[in-house]
Structure formats: C-alpha cells, structure tokens
Amino acid sequence: DVKVTQSSRYLVKRTGEKVFLECVQDMDHENMFWYRQDPGLGLRLIYFSYDVKMKEKGDIPEGYSVSREKKERFSLILESASTNQTSMYLCASSLRDSSTDTQYFGPGTRLTVL
Amino acid sequence: AQKVTQAQTEISVVEKEDVTLDCVYETRDTTYYLFWYKQPPSGELVFLIRRNSFDEQNEISGRYSWNFQKSTSSFNFTITASQVVDSAVYFCALNDNTGGFKTIFGAGTRLFVKA
Q1: Cα–Cα–Cα angle for A45, A27, B106, nearest 5°?
Q2: Pairwise CB contact (< 8 Å): A45 & B45
Q3: Fewer beta carbons below 10 Å: N end or C end of chain A?
Q4: pLDDT tens digit string along B68-88?
Q5: How far apart are CA A33 and CA A59, in angstroms?
C-alpha cells in the first residue's frame, strides 16, 4: 500500500514564525503535491514537484516555498507565517507515468497561526 | 477553463437511505480523467474511482455506483443503503491535458448519515 506521512497532525505557530511541514512517501513516486484545504473552497494546489530539485507553482504559491532534496520527501515552508495561512495542509504523491494518475494523500496537518 | 462544481454543500440522510452526490465539470479537452475521493473524519483523502473520458460505462462497486454522462458533463456518485461509516466529505476532481499535472477539485459535499 502507498503510504504518505506528514510530520504533524496539528501545529500551532505564531505570526512571523518560519514553519516547516514535512511529507514523506514510500512508494517511489515521482510526483508530489502540496494542497491547502479550506471550507467551501475544496483543495487548492500550492506547489508540486515532478522530480528531485524540481518544483512548479500551483494556483496559490504566494507566501510559500518548497524543497525537494530527496525523491521521497517534499517540504512546504512558510517563510513568515500569517493568520490567513491557518488551514489544513495536505500532501499527495503519484506516479509520473501519467499526469492524470491517481494521487495518494497523507493524513493532513491542521495548522493554526495565532 | 477547468472547473468542477459540487452544488450540494451538505447532505443529511438516515441510515439505509440511498443518496446521490452530484458533480458537474467543465473542460475543453476531449481527453480527461474524473475522480472521486472520500475524506473521513480522520482527514486522509481516500481514492474511490478514476474514469477516463472515453469510458462512459457506469461503474458499480458494492454499495457505490457512478454515473458518467458526457452529454451533461456530469459524474454523479450514488451510495445505496447508506451506513454511518459513509459519513465523510466527498470530493469530485478533474484532470485534463490543459491542466498538466494539476488536478482540479470541487468544493466537496459533506455527507451525514444518521443512525
């Protein structure tokens, strides 16, 4: 079974702090994604990566950066957290074979910025 | 432009009722994929089904069935004889050639199944 894990289920940070969200997948997937989920808005893509050290902006990249130094790990960074970044963050991975392949999700990190 | 609309924000049913979750999509491509995911209270999205645009056959998997109609751009999901464990948020999603690696998700429908 595909396993996608995220470093924290719940996180509370203060405005201005630097925040790291880690995601690890164990299925040798090429593609990895970071989404945020907000009520009424569904999932919105922040960044994705299709290979080590490669990254592409999604629909809402402002205020975020990412890092992919190893194939299995994809990190989301909030350089200076703000209250409007309070949200549920979901990581996902998929095979590269097809850009339309099924994505497998982690359990999510609920981030609160005070 | 790609778009996925799930008009039902919340649905509440009593156990054993049948329930249909609606999904309407927009795309200019002739080749595309549609998905349904389930998000239980634990938070992790679980893949339910993927359907490509050339396969309009309806699919049944146990109590779950999907009705894909290209003529109305809809990909509806029906749960027969609902159970409390079906309570979750359900997302419909679309990926086409225009979007590349991007998958567009609908806003989700929260289903409450009461005992």
Answers
A1: 25
A2: no
A3: N
A4: 999 999 999 999 999 999 999
A5: 12
